[in-house]
Design a protein that fits this description.
By secondary structure, this protein is an alpha/beta fold. The chain has one domain. The strands form 3 sheets. The chain has a 7-stranded mixed beta sheet with strand order 2-11-10-3-4-9-7, with helices on both faces. A hairpin with a 3-residue loop joins strand 10 and strand 11. The chain is globular. The mean pLDDT is 93.
């Protein structure tokens, strides 16, 4: 298990990629990504729902049925390929990291999957960035601001640096 140290909390509140007002504002880039069969991962319930509202189906959706720590209902039913994992807030369990890596290697447009987290999925961006192909996109919500588009090739070094600062327990 890897734990988020206090000194890294503020740093990780900053976007790891480009902040956009909405999914709609980057819809064309996302459609091109899918057309070229390149990986898109969405992290968070609202981000995943907004992608589907804009006819963008990520190969991987990582959700926890919460938004701003409050329960949320979504209708992500595009696949029966759903994996369940426990992951408490402020940590990355070995099982969750392993599931992210396995999903990146197995998911495709024809075989999308949902990772349903019991707990919190906020830190998933780190193992996803460092284990995804260089041309992958990862999206997550920035509360009250919009959606962050992480281009793996651009964010890899920063994500790896943060990942190395997590405390092994």
């Amino acid at each position: 298990m890897l734990k988020l140290p206090k000194q890294l909390r503020q740093e990780l509140k900053k976007p790891l990629g480009q902040l956009h007002e909405s999914v709609f504002s980057i819809k064309e880039s996302l459609q091109k990504q899918l057309k070229e069969d390149k990986l898109i991962i969405s992290i968070g319930d609202v981000t995943s729902m907004k992608l589907f509202e804009n006819n963008i189906q990520p190969q991987i959706c990582i959700v926890d049925n919460l938004t701003k720590r409050k329960p949320i209902e979504h209708n992500l039913n595009h696949t029966e390929n759903i994996k369940y994992v426990d992951n408490p807030a402020g940590v990355l369990t070995d099982e969750f990291i392993g599931l992210c890596v396995k999903s990146i290697n197995e998911a495709s447009t024809e075989n999308p999957l949902i990772i349903q987290v019991n707990g919190e999925e906020d830190l998933a961006v780190l193992p996803c960035v460092i284990n995804s192909p260089k041309d992958a996109f990862i999206l997550y919500g920035q509360p009250n601001e919009g959606v962050v588009l992480v281009k793996v090739e651009e964010a890899y070094d920063k994500a790896l640096n943060y990942y190395k600062q997590l405390i092994k327990e």
